[in-house]
Specification:
Number of strands: 5
Order of helices and strands: EEEHEHEHHH
CATH architecture: 2-Layer Sandwich
Strand content: 15-25%
Radius of gyration: 15 Å
Helix content: 40-55%
Length: about 160
């Protein structure tokens, strides 16, 4: 079973891959799709589409887990994030990949034990839980691994 965790964004999209065998994580990897910030939103969405499509082709996930929208003070940012999530979900649906969604609070609680954990705490716990030699290169990648871990933790007896 391959779990693809996705931390959506309109400039950086984090992704984390967990390979699960017999209820154990046997491999983990992560990265970031870096989007050119100088181009229009529509062009950034195309880059997100191609990036996710490439990840799916390389890792062939069985399920993808995506973080829900976190609404802060800026409504424009929430709408832009919604566009990015829509493109990501479209690509996943085109490949017939099952999609699960969790809120940032659910992810933090699952990985750290506290729904109000800081990004640094999440990053630290991801590194410790997965026995990584070093922390992920970006917080987006660490968040994506945390999202994948949330799916694993909530459904480990299914795998």
């Amino acid at each position: 079973m391959i779990i693809l965790g996705i931390d959506p964004g309109s400039y950086n999209v984090g992704y984390g891959i967990l390979q699960v065998e017999k209820r154990k994580i046997v491999a983990a990897g992560c990265g970031t799709i870096k989007i050119n910030s100088k181009i229009q939103l529509a062009e950034r969405l195309v880059q997100i589409h191609f990036g996710i499509d490439k990840i799916i082709a390389e890792y062939k996930p069985d399920i993808a887990v995506i973080e829900t929208i976190f609404y802060g003070k800026n409504i424009k940012s929430a709408f832009t994030l919604g566009h990015a999530r829509g493109v990501i979900m479209l690509v996943l649906a085109q490949h017939n990949i099952e999609i699960a969604e969790y809120s940032p609070r659910e992810v933090k609680k699952s990985v750290v034990g506290n729904g109000n954990a800081s990004k640094e705490q999440v990053e630290y716990m991801v590194q410790k839980i997965l026995n990584l030699n070093s922390k992920p290169k970006t917080q987006d990648a660490a968040d994506a691994l945390a999202i994948a871990l949330c799916q694993f933790n909530k459904n480990k007896f299914k795998y």
